[in-house]
Structures are given as C-alpha cells and as structure tokens.
Amino acid sequence: MGVSKATLLIVEDDTFTRTSMTAYLKAEGYDVCKACNGVEALEVMQETQVDLIITDLRMPEMGGLQLLKIVKEQQPNLPVIIISGEGTMGNVIEALQHGAGDYIQKPIQDMGLLKHSIELALSHTALQRAHDMYREDLEWLVEKRTKEISEKNNELVEMVKQRKLAEAQLLQAQKLESVGQLAAGIAHEINTPTQFVSSNVDFLAESFHDLVEFFKKCKEVQRLTSSGEVKPEHIQELDDLAEALDWEYLMEEIPLAIKQSRDGIQRIATIVTAMKEFSHPGTRSKADTDLNKIIQTTITVARNEWKYVADLTTSLDSNLRPVKCLSDEIGQVILNMVVNAAHAIESKLGENPVHEKGQILVSTRQCDKYAEIRIEDSGSGIPKYAQHRIFDPFFTTKKVGKGTGQGLAIVHSVITSKHNGTISFETQENVGTTFVITLPQS
Does 330 lie in the same domain as 421? Predict the structure, then answer.
C-alpha cells in the first residue's frame, strides 16, 4: 500500500479544524473519513478499513484517550496521532503510553508537520508489518533447516552457511525495526523543546512590543518637556505605562526566557546529531572506535524508551582506548541492552511508576588488554529457569508484543562471533541484573 493512497480517519468536534485538515490531506492524495467524536469514529471503522487515526483529546460522548484505548485493544498496530490544544503534559504522556504515535498541538501552524507525522507513522507501520512477516518466515526457515541438519549430516556445512546468512539478515531487519521504533520517540523529544522555544519567543515578542510603546511615550514626554509643553497628565500617562510594564518582572523573565530557548535549541541539536550518527551506515570492515561516544549517542536516541521508568546515569572511563570494531553493530548491542534494562524495570514497577523510578547505570573501564562495558539495572532480574537460555534465539521472558527473543541472541553473536569478545551477567530476582561485555584491544 502506497502512503499516498492511505485512508485516514479524522476525529474532531471542531468543524473548522476538521474541515481544514480534511481539505489539506485530500489535496495531498489521502482518502479521508470524518467523525465528530469517538463513538462516531468506531461506527466509521466498522464500515471502512482505515490506515491511521488523527483524533482530538477532548470531545463530547467519547474523548480521544478513550478512543485510543479501544482502538489499541482491537487493532494494536493501527497508528494514532493525537491533536489537541487543551491537553496537559499529563494527557500527552498518558496518550503516548497507551500507544499514540505522536502528539501535535493545536492550532497547527504548519500542516507540513502533520503530513510528516502521518508519513512517519504509516512508514513505521509498513516496516513493522514487513518485519513480522519476515520473522515468521525466518522462524519457519530455521525450524526447517534444523530438522534437515539432524537428518542429513552431509549437508551440515551448507546449513551452517544458511544460518549465518539468516543471522545477518535478521540483524539488518532489527536495525531497521529499531530506527522505526525510535522515530516516534525522537519526534516527540524534538517537538517538546520546539514548543517550549516557541512559547518563549511569543513572550519575548510581546515584551518587546510593550517596551517599544513605553520608550515611544518616553520620547514624547522628553519632546514636550524640551518645548515646555509637558503637562501633569503626560507624566501620569508615562507612570501608568511604567506600572503596567512591570519592569522588575521583565528584567527577571526576559533573560530566563532567552536562556531556556538556547537550552531548548541545544537539546534539539544534540538529538539530531545523535540520531544522524546512530543511523549512519557503518563500514563493513572494523575500524578504531570510541566506545564512549557510541554509548552516549545510543543513550540519547533511545531516551524515550527509558525516561518514563528509569533514571539513567553513565560512568565512562576518560582513559578508554579505541576498540577496533564494527561501530554500527556495537551501537545496536548497546541499544538492545539499554532497552532490555528499561523493560526489566518496567516489568517490576509497572509501565507508569508514579512515585518511584528504577536505575540504569552504563559504565566503561579500561582493563589490561580489553575494554569493559557494564550495563546495570534495578529491574526484575532473570528467573533461574531462564538464565541458561537467555542467549538462545527466539527465547524471551517478556510479554507478547514486548520482544521477539532475538535481542540478546544478536548481542551474543555480535560480541563473541564477530569481535572475539565475551558477555556475562550477574542477576538477582527482584533486585536487578548486571551485564558485562569485554572487547579485545589491539
């Protein structure tokens, strides 16, 4: 299905907003259905197969959050974008935790932002569908090949080659899946400081206008004073303007708004740079690599995966020597380990811990002839029955939909087979787990 022929469902009680979005999206080549509230939206979905839902938060009869929960129960993979001018940050977080792909604030100043969010959500859904089909085919292929190996020893060498090829293809598929999963979180991470900067700019513009009016009045009073025409009411007008201006408040808030805006812009630049480095295709040959930089980049792009359940800290050895490795694959290893740590904490505390967060510590250490990476979490730990199987392909202790059982299998393959390193772990149920990775240095 091409993105341009997708069927969209707009759920919005405001007639102007609903009509303007419909006209714009139809002009962009989409088929568009409309509903005034969540109840009408569910009726439309019974008659029409929709590919994406755009919904307001607050509507009569059934609001956007309730609609989102029902949709995700019935069609977990159907993307939903929340658009509202009334939602608080609590509403935003709740919507994202229940599966919303993005949140856009009304009024929408740039419809291009909405179009980009739709394209991103549809692309991610298509990628997820392709990945699921590929995984099913791969599971079937692995099972079939395993039976053939046991029956035909003379085909062992060829089968090993096929398995290595399948592992390489699976690693590439997971890389694509990771970028897709991170995309919505990255968009939200950028959108939040962007909106904050926008609010500060509006405040600065309004303050500048008030200051200009005040200084115009000052110049007028100065002119009248010089010509001897000044009257008490002119002075009173100036005093009234000065009082309304609240100079002390502006002296405090304007520098703060400038600082906060600069911080927001720096945050956006950091995220964009990190995503660019993470998604950049690596070389096919090993090269001297700064492990600390890979770790920092990966933590930045994966922030939306862990920030709601854990506080993540780092302790990176500044004397760590470069390691000759495949940088993109090591980045994938770090991503898998950090996401696993977040999931372990989530399984212990719940998806939305109110008064408590877990802890994740990522550290590096320069040893004699190798570099050491540690990933520690305060999660649920690994059950005894699973400890000898966690690196097996397709084995997982996570709930359905939370994992394919390939993350640690790929980590083990990348570290041990491709880099001659080691990976081990220490764990205690309901206390946490520490994974230790070592990579040899030349």
Answer: yes
